[in-house]
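During data preparation, we tokenized the protein backbone, and the record follows.
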Amino acid sequence: MVVKLINAVEISGSLSVLFELIVDLKSVPDNIQCMKNLPASLSAAILMLLFVGAATMFAGCTATEEEPYNVGELLEHPVYDTPVYVAGEVSDLGVMDCMCFHLISGGDTLEAWYGTMVEDDRTAWPDVEITGIENGDEVVLYGELKSAGKYRQEGVFWIKQIEKIET
């Protein structure tokens, strides 16, 4: 029955065809006895919810997680103003005269900002909480490598999220 349902959705793309197939409870195997005791419309609704829920849960999923760049890779092949992940070691936190630190990996260093980030249209990015992050910590940053602008230099990284990697 599952194969028929999947093929019906793939071929027609219509939930009405799926619903018609589910309503035909004569094709429900004997091992699903509890479904045979329910009214047909309720059984159909339950099966449809299970199928649609499973399809929704896996929609857009990939087999593997996106690997973060190391700093050397990101600077060698820059991706400006687009959300990316970059991993490395925190350095110079609390030393620089800004709400920023250096991130080191792949033989290169990146200036990473966690506060006072303002776009050219004066839209302020929210400050990122860095409590618990110290120099020497391995972290993964999610944010954007910025192109040159009114309030920033090209090649600085603005952080949206920071995650400490426990070793």
Observations:
- The chain has two domains: 2-58, 69-164.
- The first helix runs from residue 2 to 12.
